[in-house]
Automatic annotation (TrEMBL):
Highest taxon above the source species: Bacteria
4-aspartylphosphate: residues carrying this PTM: 27
Organism whose genome encodes this protein: Candidatus Competibacter phosphatis
Coiled coil: 95-129
Protein name as it appears in the record: Sigma-54-dependent Fis family transcriptional regulator
Leader sequence segment: none
InterPro entries per record: AAA+_ATPase, AAA_lid_NorR, CheY-like_superfamily, Homeodomain-like_sf, HTH_Fis, P-loop_NTPase, Sig_transdc_resp-reg_receiver, Sigma_54_int
Gene3D superfamilies named in the record: 1.10.8.60, 3.40.50.2300, Homeodomain-like (1.10.10.60), P-loop containing nucleotide triphosphate hydrolases (3.40.50.300)
Chain ranges of the Sigma-54 factor interaction domain: 137-366
C-alpha cells in the first residue's frame, strides 16, 4: 500500500489527476481551499475514492451538510485517537474494495448481457436460416407471391390466422414468419400439434392444471396459453381437437379468458392464435367433427398454401436452399444439379410437398460423389398422366423465366440460349400475360 503526502489542495488535485487514489484524508483548514472544497472537486476527478476530513472545530454544520450531499464519507475530530483512526481507515479501504468489486462485477454482468444479446441474435439468425427466415424467402411463383401479398396485410396486427394446405407445404414456416415480423416478435412463439396428445393431456398442456386435479398432478402448472402470454401460439392440426376442447378454445378467442383444469378461477391472457390444418374444415363441420362457431372465430384471416406441384417455379430455388443446408452437414461437395436432374425435379408431383423435396435432396446428397447431383434412383419416376402436356408447358415457362432473369431481361440473349427465335420467345411471353 502506498501513501502520498501533499501540502495544499492544488497539489492534491494534481496528484489525483495522475494517480489512482483509494482514500483521501484532508485537513479542513488548508492553503488555497478548504478540505471540504477539495473533496467536492475531487469527485469530478476520481468519484470512487473514499473521502475523509479532519477538523478541529466544534461547529461541524458545514461538514454535516457536505456529508449529506455525498461529498464526504466521514469526518474525524481533532485530536484523534490513533487506534480509532487506524480502524476508520481500515473500514474505509474495505469499503473502497467493496465498491470497486461491485463495479467490476457490474461491468462483467453488462459484458455478459451484451454477449448474451449477440448470442441470441446469432441464435435467431441460425434459427431463421433453419426455418428459411431469410430475405430470400422462396416466392418466385405467382401462387406464392399472392400468398405473401396477403400475408403482408396481417403481419402488423394480432388477427387470428387460419393456415390451410396439404401436409408439407410450409404452414409452420409461415406461422413463424408472421410472428417473427409482427409486433409480438420479442415475445414467445410456441407450437402445439393438437393431434399428438389425448384430450385430457392436451387440455392440461394448453390451459394448465391445479394440483390434485387428476392423478399425477402433484403441483400447479401453467399451460401454454399462460406461458406464451403476449406472444403467439400455433395450434397445428386444429381439426384433431376434441369438441370439449373446442369449446374452451372458443372462449379464449372470444374474450381471452380460460380456467385451468380443476380450478374455478378464470385467468386472462393476450395471445395471438394461428391455427393450421391439412383438412377441409367445412367438410369436418358437415360431418359434425368441428364446431362452426369456432371455425368462424379461427377463420378471421384464412390463408391457403398451394401445393408444390402448383408452384413449380419455386422448386429450383428450394432445391438449391436444401442443397446448401445439407451439403456441409453431410460433408458432400455437390454445389448444383445437372440439367437432367433439375428437369426430373421439375416433373415430379411431390405428394409430400416441400418436406418431401427436402428429404429427396438429402437423399441425393448421400448418394452423390461429384460436384453436381445427377439424375438417379434418389428421385421416384414422375407419373405419366393426362396432365403431362400441361406440366411440360409449365416446365418450359420456368426455363424461359429463369433464362430471362439470368440475362437481365435481354430477349436476344435469352432466345439464343434457349435455341429458339426471338419471335417464338415473344409469343410465349405474350401467352404468359393472358
Amino acid at each position: 500500500m502506498r501513501w502520498f503526502a501533499v501540502s495544499s489542495g492544488t497539489e492534491a488535485l494534481a496528484l489525483l489527476a495522475r494517480q489512482d487514489i483509494a482514500l483521501i484524508i484532508a485537513d479542513q483548514r488548508m492553503p488555497e481551499m478548504t478540505g471540504a472544497e477539495l473533496l467536492e472537486r475531487a469527485i469530478e476527478i476520481n468519484p470512487n475514492a473514499i473521502r475523509m476530513i479532519l477538523t478541529g472545530y466544534t461547529d461541524t454544520a458545514a461538514l454535516v451538510q457536505a456529508i449529506n450531499q455525498g461529498h464526504i464519507y466521514q469526518y474525524i475530530n481533532k485530536p484523534w485517537d490513533r487506534r480509532e483512526l487506524k480502524l476508520t481507515v481500515k473500514l474505509a479501504l474495505e469499503r473502497y474494495e467493496l465498491v470497486m468489486e461491485n463495479q467490476r462485477l457490474l461491468k462483467e454482468l453488462q459484458a455478459a448481457n451484451e454477449r448474451l444479446k449477440d448470442e441470441n441474435l446469432l441464435l435467431k439468425k441460425e434459427t431463421d436460416k433453419e426455418f428459411g427466415f431469410t430475405n430470400t424467402v422462396v416466392r418466385q411463383s405467382p401462387a406464392m407471391r399472392h400468398v405473401f401479398n396477403r400475408l403482408d396485410k396481417v403481419i402488423d396486427n394480432s388477427a387470428t390466422v387460419l393456415l390451410t394446405g396439404e401436409t408439407g407445404t410450409g404452414k409452420t414456416l409461415l406461422a413463424h414468419h408472421i410472428h417473427s415480423r409482427g409486433p409480438r416478435k420479442d415475445k414467445l412463439f410456441i407450437e402445439q400439434n393438437c393431434g399428438t396428445l389425448p384430450e385430457t393431456l392436451l387440455e392440461s398442456e394448453l390451459f394448465g392444471h391445479k394440483r390434485g386435479a387428476f392423478t399425477g398432478a402433484v403441483q400447479d402448472r401453467k399451460g401454454l396459453f399462460e406461458a406464451v402470454d403476449g406472444g403467439t401460439l400455433l395450434l397445428d392440426e386444429i381439426s384433431e381437437m376434441s369438441p370439449t376442447l373446442q369449446v374452451k378454445l372458443l372462449q379464449v378467442l372470444q374474450d381471452g379468458s380460460f380456467r385451468r383444469v380443476g380450478e374455478s378461477q378464470y385467468r386472462q391472457v393476450d395471445v395471438r392464435v394461428i391455427a393450421a390444418t391439412n383438412r377441409d374444415l367445412s367438410t369436418e363441420i358437415e360431418n359434425g367433427r368441428f364446431r362452426s362457431d369456432l371455425y368462424y372465430r379461427l377463420n378471421v384471416f384464412p390463408l391457403h398454401i398451394p401445393p408444390l406441384r402448383e408452384r413449380i417455379e419455386d422448386i429450383p430455388p428450394l432445391a438449391e436452399h436444401c442443397l446448401r443446408k445439407y451439403r456441409h452437414k453431410l460433408n458432400r461437395q455437390a454445389t448444383g444439379f445437372t440439367e437432367e436432374a433439375l428437369r426430373d425435379l421439375l416433373r415430379y408431383d411431390y405428394p409430400g410437398n416441400v418436406r418431401e423435396l427436402e428429404n429427396l435432396i438429402e437423399r441425393a446428397l448421400i448418394l452423390s460423389s461429384g460436384d453436381l447431383i445427377e439424375a438417379g434412383e434418389w428421385l421416384p419416376q414422375p407419373p405419366s398422366d393426362t396432365n403431362e402436356i400441361s406440366r411440360l408447358e409449365q416446365l418450359e415457362r420456368v426455363q424461359i423465366e429463369r433464362s430471362l432473369t439470368i440475362n437481365n431481361g435481354n430477349l436476344k440473349l435469352t432466345a439464343k440460349e434457349l435455341g429458339i427465335s426471338r419471335t417464338t420467345l415473344w409469343r410465349r411471353l405474350k401467352d404468359y400475360q393472358k
